[in-house]
Design a protein that fits this description.
By secondary structure, the protein is an all-alpha fold. The longest helix has about 100 residues. The termini are far apart.
Length: about 110
């Protein structure tokens, strides 16, 4: 083996801390960069998810407003239709009363008791 390898393995030259500090600094720097990258990705993903969620909520709110508007229009139409049906029913009732009155007069003339 060469002298450098023997020195590193056995730390015979007394430079342990002189080698340890730069190695730790580079390792910590690598970890910090990795964590920073993960955090940046997380922030970007979170922002994208927030935008999609906000868009979905806005779409649901608009759909709900449209549904309410359509429901109100249908209720107005149903009420209008019910009013027309009530008027027709009242007219038919009046016509039936007139016909019954005529039938009663005819019966009295035909069968005077």
């Amino acid at each position: 083996m060469n002298d450098k390898v023997e020195a590193m393995i056995g730390n015979c030259d007394g430079k342990f801390f002189e080698r340890l500090v730069p190695n730790l600094v580079s390792a910590l720097l690598a970890v910090a960069i990795a964590l920073g990258t993960q955090y940046a990705d997380f922030c970007l993903d979170s922002k994208a998810a927030d935008i999609q969620t906000a868009s979905a909520i806005k779409q649901l709110t608009n759909d709900l407003a449209d549904t309410k508007r359509q429901f109100k229009e249908e209720i107005v139409e149903i009420r209008r239709s019910a009013e027309i049906d009530r008027q027709k029913t009242n007219e038919l009732v009046a016509d039936v009363k007139v016909i019954l009155a005529i039938m009663q007069r005819l019966e009295r003339k035909v069968d005077p008791r």
